[in-house]
Amino acid sequence: MKKKLAVAILLSGGGSNAQAIMDACKEGWLQAEICVVGSDRMEAGGLERAASMGVDHFVVDYKGILEHPDAASLFPVPRDFDVEAVLKKQSLFPKGHDMEKVRTFFTRRAAAERLLLDALLPYDIDLLVLAGFMRTLSPYFIDGIQREEQFPRIMNIHPALLPSFPGPDGYGDTWRHGCRIGGCTVHFVDYGEDSGPIVGQAAFSIFPEDSLEEVRRKGLEQEWSLYPACIQLYAEGRLVLEGRPGRDGKIRRVVVCS
Ligand code: GAR
């Protein structure tokens, strides 16, 4: 029998996407095994969903780490963290941004990211799936999961039709902008904000009378089928990055092979 894709999930909230992915595995049409679910928040409802499906789960309490008055001594910067290497790779902050602030931003998160890596790596995963994980991940973390840009191993789902409306409130931004069409995007994660190669998208109509809640409801419904379908393409080895860099030198196109 073919080996199933070993998947880990990170989430911050209710975990309806994680549920859809775990259900698709159980139903057998997604040939993957969810090895572990992790969260940055103890209160994340997705952790209970994992527990009820008998899936290992863990928390790295980002708030507790970032806001602790003795954070520097309790959560020291990991020895293998190289802030200059991170600054060179990252494209979350534009050039010209206050570099001291950017340095502090990444350095403060490094201890939490090390804990995430320490929790995930023992599972020997093939793919890390971000399902409503609301924390920025630095090149330090990304490189800890995937060794080569050409072979991405982290996927994210974003609640908008990228490259429109990156950031934390995709459906809200789509709705406030008065868009007639909304959607969601599954993409590989790179060193920028929601900027990695697009794997799949799904769209839906927005009518003038639709509330933001209605837009979110329609969007989530699309996400629940799009995300497992994209993971299945990955499991089948059908996603290939096309070696044609865009204007900024980044390789963006994902080709789905038959
Ligand atoms: C989903 O809408 C997902 O697209 C979004 O969070 C929600 C999580 O819902 N992700 C992001 O905004 C990532 N930046 P869920 O916890 O019910 O799966």
UniProtKB/TrEMBL annotation:
| EC identifiers of the protein | 2.1.2.2
Give the similarity note. Belongs to the GART family.
Query: Which Gene3D superfamilies does the UniProt record give?
Result: Formyl transferase, N-terminal domain
Task: Give start-end of the signal peptide.
Answer: 1-20
Site: Raises pKa of active site His. Where?
194
Catalytic residues as annotated in Swiss-Prot or TrEMBL: 158
Q: What is this protein called?
A: Phosphoribosylglycinamide formyltransferase
Q: What does this protein do?
A: Catalyzes the transfer of a formyl group from 10-formyltetrahydrofolate to 5-phospho-ribosyl-glycinamide (GAR), producing 5-phospho-ribosyl-N-formylglycinamide (FGAR) and tetrahydrofolate.
User: Pathway membership of this protein?
Assistant: Purine metabolism; IMP biosynthesis via de novo pathway; N(2)-formyl-N(1)-(5-phospho-D-ribosyl)glycinamide from N(1)-(5-phospho-D-ribosyl)glycinamide (10-formyl THF route): step 1/1
Tell me the classification of the organism that encodes this protein. Bacteria, Pseudomonadati, Thermodesulfobacteriota, Desulfobacteria, Desulfobacterales
Originating organism = Desulfobotulus pelophilus
What UniProt keywords are attached to this protein's entry? Purine biosynthesis, Signal, Transferase
GO terms for molecular function, please?
A: phosphoribosylglycinamide formyltransferase activity
- Ranges for the Formyl transferase N-terminal domain? 7-230
Residues that bind N(1)-(5-phospho-beta-D-ribosyl)glycinamide, according to the entry?
15-17
Q: Which InterPro entries match?
A: Formyl_transf_N (IPR002376), Formyl_transf_N_sf (IPR036477), GART (IPR004607)
Per its record, the protein catalyses:
N(1)-(5-phospho-beta-D-ribosyl)glycinamide + (6R)-10-formyltetrahydrofolate = N(2)-formyl-N(1)-(5-phospho-beta-D-ribosyl)glycinamide + (6S)-5,6,7,8-tetrahydrofolate + H(+)
- For the ligand ((6R)-10-formyltetrahydrofolate), the binding residues are 89, 156
